[in-house]
TrEMBL record:
Highest taxon, organism lineage: Bacteria
Name the UniProt record assigns to this protein: PTS system lactose-specific EIIA component
InterPro entries per the UniProt record, alphabetical: PTS_IIA_lac/cel, PTS_IIA_lac/cel_sf
Subcellular localization: Cytoplasm
Species per Swiss-Prot/TrEMBL record: Lactobacillus jensenii
């Protein structure tokens, strides 16, 4: 097997790993949103913490790859890796927005409860 073929397989494996971890995180974030909508805020926040763990795993894998490339190793870019990067970045953006979204849901929940009492 040539170095190019081995390199391509390694990059694809890394890409699949990033997609898997980022996908798990995205699923947790979407589930968190559903919990918040239903007023289950403790569960919503727990799911965000779980998502953060998966994002960190994906980000660590990405960082190792970037370190290899920065040290002079010529890496082959693949569609799988591009998909992994896209999935990770959009998931990170969603996670960054979750604190605000959960806060807004909690505020609405409190206000609705106050309106029911009055």
């Amino acid at each position: 097997m040539t170095n190019i073929m081995k390199n391509s397989e390694d990059v694809n494996t890394i890409g699949f790993s990033i997609v898997a971890y980022a996908g798990d995180a995205r699923s947790d974030l979407v589930d968190s949103l559903k919990c918040a909508k239903d007023g289950k805020f403790e569960e919503a926040h727990r799911l965000v913490v779980e998502a953060e763990k998966s994002i960190n795993l994906a980000h660590n894998i990405q960082t190792k790859m970037l370190t290899k490339e920065a040290s002079g190793e010529n890496l082959t870019l693949s569609f799988i890796m591009a998909h992994g990067q896209d999935t990770l970045m959009t998931t990170m953006l969603l996670k960054d927005q979750m604190d605000t979204i959960l806060d807004l849901y909690e505020r609405v929940f409190v206000l609705e409860k106050k309106l029911e009492v009055e």
